[in-house]
Amino acid sequence: MAEELKINPLRKYLREDKLPHFFCAGCGCGQVLNYYLQALDELKMDPEQMLHMGGVGCTARIPIYIKTDMFHGVHGRTLAWATGVKMVRPDLPVVIFAGDGDLSSIGGNHWIHACRRNLDVTVVMVNNMNFAMTGGQVAPTTPEESKTMTTPYGSSEPRFDVCSLAVAAGATHVERWTTAHPVQCKKAMERALQHKGFSLIEIVSQCPTHYGRYALKTGDPVKTMEYIQSVTYLKEQGEKMTVQEKEGKLALGQFVCEDKPIYIGSNMEL
Ligand SMILES: Cc1ncc(C[n+]2csc(CCOP(=O)(O)OP(=O)(O)O)c2C)c(N)n1
Which residues are CB-contacts of 36 (< 8 A; sequence separation ≥ 6)? Predict the structure, then answer.
């Protein structure tokens, strides 16, 4: 172990007895875990003094590999538990890993109200543009016209811009990056961990197994990442782009970072 730590000091945060991990080859969840552990390490935060949560899904399994107290439960309900936890332990840092389906579909109601209340938690949402764990079904984040397992002729639904929705609902720290932005992801997570209030870090990520296979007709992670690159742009670049050029694409960057009172429940004194 000492030798392994010399090669990668982040291994000290890993729950080695859970390895090998369950992610498919080329999945972005391993990258997200890596960026997150780098952020913890940079801030010298001890995951054993924190609570991590995951609902159900590939992304929701990320915290299983961290040495920490973890709540792994029902699909979509992490923010309901997190609200309860923060009512009794407002001091405890709570970090949730959620898939785009977990957060914005079944968990959408809990999520928008947690944003509205400015619950003091960090949510890392991996947007792989589909319900991955169950086999690649269409999700609220699936780009229009994309073929998925359940939309073989292409999705006819407009998709959610999760970051815009979070900002509109009242979240006080919102950023979007892709797995191809390691430094930006790490820094965004550091800001989120230090932020008092609701932080949402959306990471657009490759799912070569399902989104790649159904929508892009490739199982190649690199090609899937190249696709993501082609449908995202930096927020600052967007200022010089036309509405037509931005159509169907997602902006990357920080959308809000502000201080507002956090939710402490009703009739409670801190
Ligand atoms: C209450 C409930 N409804 C549905 C399911 C089935 N289910 C398990 S994982 C999943 C989708 C996961 O997709 P997402 O949240 O986007 O995460 P990903 O696997 O893509 O990371 C679904 C629908 C479930 N486990 N529980």
Answer: 62, 95, 124, 189
β-strand pairing of 250-257 with 51-54 = unpaired
The answer to whether the CB of 208 falls within 8 A of the CB of 24 is yes
Q: Is the CB of 99 under 6 A from ligand 1?
A: yes
Assigned CATH topology for domain 24-257:
Rossmann fold (3.40.50)
| Tens-digit pLDDT profile for residues 110-138 | 999 999 999 999 999 999 999 999 999 99
CB 62 within 8 A of CB 33: yes
pTM exceeds 0.90 for this model: yes
Domain boundaries, the chain: 24-257
Q: Which atom of ligand 1 is nearest to the CA of 103?
A: 15
The predicted structure's pLDDT at residue 3: 75
Strand order in the sheet with 122-127: 69-72, 51-54, 94-99, 122-127, 199-204, 173-178, 250-257, 232-234
Q: Which atom of ligand 1 is nearest to the CA of 141?
A: 16
Buried b (16+ CB within 10 A) or exposed e, 201-215: bbbbbbbbbbbbbbb
Q: Which of 210, 198, 164, 168 is nearest to 29 (CA)?
A: 210
State pLDDT tens for residues 60-86: 999 999 999 999 989 999 999 999 999
Q: Is 58 in the pocket of ligand 1 (CB under 6 A)?
A: yes
Specify the residue with its C-alpha closest to ligand 1, atom 4. 75
